[in-house]
Amino acid sequence: xxxxxxxxxxxxxxxxxxxxxxxxxxxxxxxxxxxxxxxxxxxxxxxxxxxxxxxxxxxxxxxxxxxxxxxxxxxxxxxxxxxxxxxxxxxxxxxxxxxxxxxxxxxxxxxxxxxxxxxxxxxxxxxxxxxxxxxxxxxxxxxxxxxxxxxxxxxxxxxxxxxxxxxxxxxxxxxxxxxxxxxxxxxxxxxxxxxxxxxxxxxxxxxxxxxxxxxxxxxxxxxxxxxxxxxxxxxxxxxxxxxxxxxxxxxxxxxxxxxxxxxxxxx
Length: 267
Description:
This protein is an all-alpha fold.
C-alpha cells in the first residue's frame, strides 16, 4: 500500500513540476517577445519569426485544408443521414457552419500543427541541447529562450488562428458541396444560410481557443526539447512526448474553454 501511495505522490509531483516549468517558460518568453517583433525588435529575431511563420503556417496549409475538407464532408454526410429521418435536412447547414467555427476548425488545426511543428520544435531544440549549442549561446550572453523560443511562439500565435479560419472555410465549403450533390442546394443560397447561422461570438471563441492551442503547442514542444538528457536517442523520445502531451493538453483545453463559454452564455 505504501508503494502505491509513493508512486501516486511521485507522479503528482512530476506533473506539478511540469506545469510549473511551463508557466516559468511562458513568462520568460513573454518578457523576451519584444525582441522578436517586426521593426521594433532585433532584426535577426524577427527574420527568424518570419521563417517560422512559413514553416508553421504556409507549409501546413495543404494538410490542414485537406483535413478540414474531408471532415466537413463527413460531418455533413453523417448529419444528413440522421436529420433526413426527421425532415430537418436544412439543419445540416447549421451543424457544419457552427460546428466548424466553434470546435472542429481550431481543434483540427491544432492537432495538425502539433504533429508537424510541435514535434519539429522538440527535435530542433533537443538536437541543439545534445550538441551543446544552447550552452554556446549562454557563453555568448544570448538567452536561449529569447533566441530560440520567442520567434517560434510569436509565429504560432499569428499562424494558428489564420490556419483555423482557413480550416473553417474549407470545412464549410466541403459541407456545401455535399448539400449541392445531395439536395441540389444552390451554392449562393448555402452561403446565405451559413452567414445566418454563424454569429460573431462563434468566430471570436474559435480564435480564443486557437491562441490557447498555439501557446500549448509551442511551449510543450520547446520544453520537451529543453529537457532532453543524454544522447541522440533521447531526441526521438522527446519528439514523441511532445506530440502526445501537446495533443492531450489541446483536447483538455478545448473541453475547458467549451465548458466556460457554455456556462457564461458565450455560446
